[in-house]
Amino acid sequence: MAEQNQKQQKETRQLVERAVAQAFQAQMPQLQAQIVQLVLQALPAPAAATAARPGEDPGSLVHSVSNIHAGSTQKEILRALLDSGGGYCSRIALFVVKAGAASGWQSRGFGDDEAVKDFSLDLNVGPVAHTYQNRVATPGNIAEMGRRFVGQFGGPANEQVLVLPLTLKEKVAALVYADGGDTGKLDSSALELLVIATSAWLEVVSLRKQAAAREDVTMTSRVEPAPPPVQTVSSFSDPFAGHAPMHVPASIPIPPEPAVVEMASTHAGAAAPAAAADPWAGMSAEDADVHRKAQRFARLLVDEIKLYNQAKVAEGRRHKDLYDRLKEDIDKSRGTFQKRYGNTAAASGEYFHNELVRSLAEDDISIMGSHFHR
User: The dihedral of CA 183, 188, 189, 194: what is its sign?
Assistant: First the structure.
C-alpha cells in the first residue's frame, strides 16, 4: 500500500510540475509586457522632457533599451548597458556587489574596458553608500568617491558624478558609476532608465530559463533516469551568481547562466542517447557554443516581435499574411541577427528563419504569406 501511495504521489507531482511549467510559459509574454510598462512608468519626468528637446533624436533612448533587450545572457546584457550608457555620459563603469564588497567589472570611457577590473569601491561613504543603502540613484562630487578612486582614475572637469543601483530581487547586485569626463556630458535621467531596463530584462531572462528548466525536468521525468552528468567549469564567471532568483524548487536544477556547460557521462551507454539528442554533437565545443547562442538569440528576437505586435500576429495568422503585416519588424530583426551571426559558424543554421516559422507561423509556413522567402 505504501509503495502504491508513493507511486501516486510521484505521478501527481509530475502532472502538477507539467501544468505549472505550461502555465508559466504561457504567461511569459504578458509578464514581459508588464515589466516593460513598469519601466516606462518609472521614467522620471525630467527624462521625458530631455527626450523631447528639439534637435535630439527621441528614438535614441528606445534604441538603447532595445540593444539591452537583445542580450540573451547576463554578460551580453551588462555589456550592452555599458555600451548604451556611454552615449549619455563620458565615463561609465559597473561594480559587482558580492559579500558586502563592490568590485569593478568593466567600464567605458576610461581608456580601457578593463580599467576598473577588481577595483573595490568603499560601500560606507559618499554617494556609493547612499545608493547601496537606499537603492536610489545618487549624484555627488568626485571628492566623495575617495582619494584612492580619484588617484587611480582622476575625475570629471565639473566634478559631478552619479552612482546608480542595479537591483535584482530587491537587492543591489551592482553599482553603476558615471560622470561627464572632460565634456560634462551626464544625462542622469536617461542613465537611470537604462539601469532600470537592465534590471528588468535580467529578471525576464532568468525567469525564461527557469521555465525552460521546469519543462526539461517534466519531459525527462517520463523516462528512466540516466546516470548523473559531470559538470565542467563554465567558460567565464557569472557576475551575478549570488543573485540567482529562487523561484524554482530546489529539486529542479537550473542551468548555469551565462555559459554553455559541456556535460560528460561516466557511462558510455548513457552517452549515446545524449549525443543523438544534441544537434551539435559532432561539432567542436566552440562551434556548438556559437550555434546554441545563435538559436537563443533568434528566439529572443522573434519573441520581441510577438510581444510588441500581438494584434498583427493574430490577424496575420487568421489571414495568412503575417510577413506583409510584420515586414518592417521581421526585416529589421533579421538584419540584427545577420549582423551578429551571419559570418559565424551558425550562419548555416538558418535559426532566425526557422524560429519565424516555428513560433510566429506555428510551424505552418503558409501563414507567413506568399511574399515570405528565405
Answer: positive
pLDDT of residue 233: 39
Residue 261 forms part of a structural domain: no
178 vs 187: CA distance, rounded Å:
9
The Cα–Cα gap between 238 and 56 comes to: 37
pLDDT for residue 258 is more than 90: no
In the three-class reduction of DSSP (H, G, I as helix; E, B as strand; rest coil), residue 185 is classed as coil
- Tell me if 8 is assigned to some domain: no
> Are 302 and 72 a contacting pair, CB within 8 Å?
no
Sorted by sequence, the CB contacts under 8 Å of residue 33 that are 6+ apart come out as 307
Please tell me whether residues 196 and 328 are part of one structural domain. Answer: no
Domain hosting residue 146, numbered range:
34-206
Provide the whole-model pTM: 0.51
Domain limit, last residue, from 206, 223, 250: 206
Nearest alpha carbon to residue 193 among 74, 84, 304: 84
pLDDT exceeds 80 at position 272: no
Query: How many whole angstroms separate alpha carbon 199 and alpha carbon 129?
Result: 20
Do 196 and 299 belong together in one domain?
no
252 belongs to a structural domain = no
C-alpha distances (whole Å) from 69 to each of 61, 113, 230, 373 are 12, 21, 32, 27
Lowest mean pLDDT among 195-204, 225-234, 235-244: 225-234
Angle between helices 285-308 and 310-319 (to 10 degrees): 90
pLDDT at 285 over 60: yes
Which of the listed residues 206, 223, 252 is the one where a domain comes to its end? 206
94 phi, psi to nearest 5 deg: -115, 130
Q: What's the total number of domains in the chain? A: 2
Q: How many whole angstroms separate alpha carbon 373 and alpha carbon 202?
A: 34
Average pLDDT over residues 218-243: 50
| Residue 123 grid coordinates | 560601500
Q: For residue 179, what is its C-alpha cell? A: 560622470
Contact 95, 103 (CB under 8 A): yes
* 243 located within any domain: no
* Residue 364, SS3 per DSSP: coil
Element (H, E) at 263: strand 263-264
